[in-house]
Amino acid sequence: MSPFVFTGFPYRVVFGAGSLDKLGEEMTRLGAKRALILSTPEQRSDAAAIAATLGDRCAGVFDQAVMHVPIEIARAARTLATNLKADCAVTIGGGSTTGLGKAIALESSLPIIAIPTTYAGSEVTPIWGITEGGLKKTGKDARVLPKVVIYDPLLTMSLPAKLSATSGINAIAHAVEGLYAQDANPIMSMIAEEGIRAMAKGLPLVVENPTNAEARANCLYGAWLCGSALASVGMALHHKLCHTLGGTWNLPHAETHTIVLPHACAYSAAAAPLAMQRIARALEASSAPRGLFDLAQSLGASVALKDLGIKEFDLDRAADLATQAPYWNPRPIERNAIRKLLDDAYFGRRPD
Ligand code: NAD
């Protein structure tokens, strides 16, 4: 076995249908008495329900979380947390809401209890992102890692089938890149493979029936495992492409991941054969890139970038941007090959 480094992260997970009921107990364990509840405007009622349950242990609700954490929103939430003398933040929502909690913690070290309702995986990573002047800055900082994650599959029942599919493949993307990361290690690879397996098993059942509790639990479990891979090992070409397309053309996060992933995987397939074997095995497919493409298509997700609004003439610029300051990747980054990858993703061609 080759030498490796493994970093374990100090967070606590409470998993299971109805585990939201444990929020008060978890606050007590942290010694917290005044929670600021965070949500998007769309999930205001979820935040209000938590506030009602906590009673006078709720210091206030801030329901303005939006995608990519604009600095103005982060500042407003930070100020409110200070003014209310909150001693913890409770985030209820997807990666955007968790991200807002992280933006507060980055300055104040306020402990976060994260209650994820999508499969983005941000709740178990020390990665933060804040957008200022149209540019998204990201970084890693142990202060932003939530102290507790409450995974309650019942809260994901309302996630529409279409968003469940793309959010789930966003999670799978973390595990796929974790398997061929430069700093991959056997523990994370085991977790990543199991994450892909759980997600690939759960997603078709969720799309068929979004209130299938067992399938929802499988997907949320898979999201945790896949998020753990993102937390522990490096990102590669796929995440670089998605950050470029999302940042410059404002393409929707989970949908972009879903379309790009089979092509990024095909790009690196010959350079990462063991990772490909594990991905294919988890998907029960004969090829990792085709298995990912077929999963997305079978879930009814879009498989073509042209459906997201980007124009064909933008692809040259996207190839230029994605090949500047590239992340490490098992196959070296070649501009013309990346342009071809983008063409395949644009037209939604099934990988060879
Ligand atoms: P999101 O948080 O933006 O949520 C999308 C929409 O779905 C929102 O309107 C939200 O309120 C709604 N929603 C969420 N859960 C719902 C539910 N159960 N029922 C009904 N509606 C629900 O989407 P996302 O894909 O979870 O997060 C994307 C963001 O997370 C991006 O900004 C991305 O960069 C970030 N992210 C960060 C990390 C990290 O480690 N830092 C990891 C993954 C994603």
SSE order: EHEHEHEHEEEEHHHHHHHHH
User: What is the number of helices?
Assistant: 13
Number of beta-strand segments: 8
Distance between the termini: 32 Å
The CATH topology of the largest domain corresponds to Dehydroquinate synthase-like, alpha domain
Q: Give the C-alpha Rg.
A: 19 Å
Q: What's the CATH class label of the largest domain?
A: Mainly Alpha
Shape: globular
Count structural domains. 2
Which percent range fits the helix content? 40-55%
Subunit arrangement of the protein: single chain
Give me the CATH superfamily of the largest domain: Dehydroquinate synthase-like - alpha domain
Can you describe this structure?
This protein has about 350 residues and is of the alpha/beta class. It folds into 2 domains: about 140 residues, Rossmann fold (3-Layer(aba) Sandwich), CATH 3.40.50.1970; about 190 residues, Dehydroquinate synthase-like, alpha domain. It is built from 13 helices and 8 strands. The strands form 2 sheets. The protein has a 6-stranded parallel β-sheet, with helices on both faces. Strands 6-7 form a two-stranded antiparallel sheet. Strand 4, helix 4 and strand 5 form a beta-alpha-beta unit. The radius of gyration is 19 Å and the shape is globular. The mean pLDDT is about 95. Bound molecules: nicotinamide-adenine-dinucleotide. The site of nicotinamide-adenine-dinucleotide has 29 residues, from helix 4, strand 6, helix 5 and helix 9.
